[in-house]
Amino acid sequence: MLREVHIRPARREDIRTIVRLLADDELGRDREDLSEPLSQAYFKAFDEIVADKRNLVIVAEAADGGLLGCLQMTFIPGLSHQGAERALIEDVRVDKHHRGRKIGHHMLDWAIGEARRRHSCLIELFVHETRFAARRFYENHGFKDSHRGMRLQLA
Q1: Mean pLDDT, residues 13-18
Q2: Which of 36, 59, 128, 138 has the CA that lies 20 to 30 A from 109?
């Protein structure tokens, strides 16, 4: 299966599928809006991400052109770690019909390679406390549960 998967930067025409992936779980279904026409807020956010060299959205694409997964990365400059940059991975999703085929591993390997290519000193990601399978997935990939995150919801 992995030979048939290509990792590439997301394109504007991928936005509807990406939003569908983000909405396809118990947490996302209340956050995202799949109504037609798709909200321009998604397109505006995507355009801002693409315009910023420190942000990217990638997709895993099947040989037939179908999107199998996505993730977003942000590269954050910092003073800590002697001025090193860190990478933040968010919104990792794999289409529910294609889970268990190592697509998430493929995307995460790509993201780790990209962080290394950019000389990031570490990668951070956040996993909702109810996502037990996702936590195991990241731990099996070498991530350590080292910090406790907090959030203040503003909107």
Answers
A1: 96
A2: 128
pLDDT at 1 over 60: no
Sequence spans of domains, the chain: 2-140
- Which CATH number, 3.40.630.30, 3.65.10.10, 2.160.10.10, 3.40.50.1450, labels domain 2-140? 3.40.630.30
The predicted-structure confidence for 41-58, as pLDDT tens digits, reads as follows: 999 999 999 999 999 999
C-alpha 60/C-alpha 17 separation (Å) is: 12
**Could you tell me the CA-to-CA distances from 9 to 12, 67, 73, 92 in Å, in that order?**
10, 12, 11, 14
Give every strand in the sheet of 86-94, ordered side by side.
5-9, 55-62, 67-76, 86-94, 122-125
3-class SS letters over the chain: CHHHEEEEECCHHHHHHHHHHHHCCCCHHHCCCCCCCCCHHHHHHHHHHHHCCCEEEEEEEECCCCEEEEEEEEEECCCHHHHCCEEEEEEEEECHHHCCCCHHHHHHHHHHHHHHHCCCCEEEECCCCCCHHHHHHHHHCCCCCCCCCCCCCCC
